[in-house]
Amino acid sequence: MKTKLISPSLLSADFGNLERDIQMLNKSQSDWLHVDVMDGRYVPNISFGFPVMKTVKKFSKKFVDVHLMIVEPEKYVEEFIEQGADLVSIHYEACVHLHRTINLIQDKGAKAGVVLNPASPVLLLEDIIADVDLVLLMSVNPGFGGQKFIENTYKKIAETKDLILSNNSTALIQIDGGVNLDNAAKLFEAGADVLVAGNAVFSSENPEKTIELMKI
Fold this sequence. Notes:
Layout: E1 5-8, H1 18-27, E2 32-38, H2 50-59, E3 63-69, H3 77-82, E4 87-91, H4 98-107, E5 111-116, E6 134-138, H5 153-166, E7 172-176, H6 184-190, E8 194-197, H7 199-202, H8 207-214
Parallel strand pairs: 1-8, 2-3, 3-4, 4-5, 5-6, 6-7, 7-8
């Protein structure tokens, strides 16, 4: 997969006009479409489930990037893949049998990502880094949109890049939380490959232009 990718988060879209916003992303320079799934248990909020995935699958022409902020993700990954997920990312902190679930995702034909919360050290990934397609570093605490970016993320990008290289891994690095036009270029420069952008895109007067500028 190429790098310097933008994955707008549907969590910040207009829920009453999902088709319109998805069609806008189809026309834009966005590379992926990010779907945040929250269960009200692993994180305090509740968001999309399978009915919304059906809508995404129906209208999106982009690579569908599903981020499961849920407990026991192993129970649901197959159905998300059946509903159109091209990549499924699961939290290290929420998955008891991580290798097994990563292998399940890949066996079902999707890419597999592992997610770290801001307070979780990168070294936790040492025994899984060679098996995953992507590492998602949360740059805010998961559960809510519109939070302030955590500056320690830059240090974690460097540590993740070192871990990837030292293990001959091909995993991409994705950043999620507080990404905007002020820090996008710096994040790519630091070694990020994929940026998730929610409010920065959907609250913009010109979302397509904002996406374009983030890729420069």
